[in-house]
């Protein structure tokens, strides 16, 4: 999972031409000679999808191995009103919910009065690094991962915990910790439950 680019663009009301305001790219995985072309392609992709995203709309567009997650919102009022568009370009494995959570955060923090760029917004580079691991950046994903790990432990049956060849029935019979009535309860409960098993 990887984010390759985060960009913020602006568009005047009624216009379909977005202007770049701020951007941060992580193209270190490409060869030195490819980095310029990749950065240029990422800027072109962001502008293209930004031009075609209406205010209030969220969409994810796949292009080759990349997915551009786009969110546009109107900001300002009167003569300062314009559309601010955030674009996160990631690989296909990156969680969509985390990408849009990041876009919300960026558009909330971005200076609303900026309509033409470039704009100094160093937080983009920080977010680009922080959100590379979505589990660390996103609390809900982190909790979900912890729950999934717990679920694996909970799904083990008592038989899988016992040593190979051991059966719970023989352990109950040999146990000194259980009273005769507890042993009787276990056997009768097992007998009642076994009547409902369909083979």
TrEMBL record:
Residues 139-199 form the V-SNARE coiled-coil homology domain. GO terms for cellular component: Golgi apparatus; plasma membrane. InterPro entries: Longin-like_dom_sf, Longin_dom, R-SNARE_YKT6, Synaptobrevin-like, V_SNARE_CC. PROSITE patterns: LONGIN, V_SNARE. It comes from the Eukaryota. It is a lipid-anchor. Keywords: Cell membrane, Coiled coil, Lipoprotein, Membrane, Methylation, Palmitate, Prenylation. It is found in: Cell membrane. GO terms for biological process: endoplasmic reticulum to Golgi vesicle-mediated transport. Pfam families: Longin (PF13774), Synaptobrevin (PF00957). This is Synaptobrevin homolog YKT6. It comes from Mixia osmundae (strain CBS 9802 / IAM 14324 / JCM 22182 / KY 12970). The lineage of its organism: Eukaryota, Fungi, Dikarya, Basidiomycota, Pucciniomycotina. The gene is Mo04829.
